[in-house]
């Protein structure tokens, strides 16, 4: 027979995996990800929900004659933090994705 015991075991495993997924999602949301531009001229901090929490800019970077440099450094720092967040998410959540499937 295709037995109810196999189905019960499968449901139990699914509930366990669902609990693990929720736990990892909560851990990601609570983690802070810091990105920086070269020489830490700009540092930014994001939470796992992709919300920026903080930005620090070294005063010597602020040059009224060259606002593009400041913009570039901010972009580098933000992208660095978001890459770290995405890599951590993939590492934590990838274990739950079927082989060959894209990540979370």
UniProtKB/TrEMBL annotation:
Subcellular location: Cytoplasm, Nucleoid
Primary location class: cytoplasm
Keywords, sorted A to Z: Cytoplasm, DNA-binding
InterPro entries associated with the record: YbaB-like_sf, YbaB/EbfC
Keyword match Coiled coil: no
Gene Ontology CC annotations of this record: bacterial nucleoid; cytosol
GO MF term list: DNA binding
Function summary: Binds to DNA and alters its conformation. May be involved in regulation of gene expression, nucleoid organization and DNA protection.
Protein name in the entry: Nucleoid-associated protein IV67_GL001145
Species for this entry: Weissella minor
